Amino acid sequence: MKFNHHTSLKWALTIFCCSLLFSGYAQSSLFSFEKFVNGKGDTLQYRQLFPDYDTLRKYPLVIFLHGSGERGKDNEAQLKWGVKNFATDENMKMYPAFVIAPQCPANDGWSNFSESKNNSVLVLKKSPTKPMELVIALVYELTKKFPIDPKRIYITGLSMGGYGTFDAIERYPNLFAAAVPVCGGGDVSLASSIKHIPIWIFHGADDSVVPAAFSRNMVEALTKAGAHPGYTQYPEVGHFSWIAAYNDPLLMAWLFRQRKN
After folding, report:
1. Which fold has domain 32-256?
2. What are the backbone angles phi and psi of residue 178, rounded to the nearest 5°?
3. 60, 109, 134, 147: least buried by Cβ within 10 Å?
4. What does the domain layout of the chain look like in residue ranges?
5. Which helix (H) or strand (E) holds 45?
6. Are 229 and 216 a contacting pair, CB within 8 Å?
7. What is the DSSP secondary-structure string of 170-234?
């Protein structure tokens, strides 16, 4: 078989694509299949990443909330975006942690906000959604079961999960050590109740699904309340701002050094 420049390039691209597929599969396989059932019989499926843990120290817990497109019951789709970045060899070496990725059932959501007529203002409703209620119950269950540091519980999510991240910290402001909402939004009237939580917000400037104004309004409200939120807005980026966000090594370094006082 005669090889030329184009053949070599074709083989190189094939090998590269195969390595990406294998890498993605390998990272997915690191997340165990789990199911949480509360006292009422309500069920939440989730995947869990374990650190190389021992009994001599405690580890952070990261809660990852997926977007609306990954809802369902296969306990697989929620690994599509973002969370596998926590399972790279480099990040598992540098930042060993327990990571959970629950899956929200179809036709449900992580957050429970009402919107104004022009969809510009979000108001947190009194009760959490059933999936959010189960996520919080799961967190308390895991902190009893594993060597998790209660001062290092982090939450992050994208799109529907970005809204869910704000919902969680506004409902349970004393639970989390840090939060990373990506292309989401929250209730600006509650900014003072979460001003003590380190928050880094991400959004794409050209997002046509979730207006970047939702994130900017939260940044403004938090700043007025005396907080010091981080905000990264990517120019010429639409809804997929999470690709850049979760691949940012500065984000990982920042997140894992946050601790509750």
Report:
1. Rossmann fold (3.40.50)
2. -170, 160
3. 147
4. 32-256
5. strand 43-49
6. no
7. HHSTTT-SEEEEES----GGGGGGGTTS-BEEEEETT-SSS-HHHHHHHHHHHHHTT---EEEEE
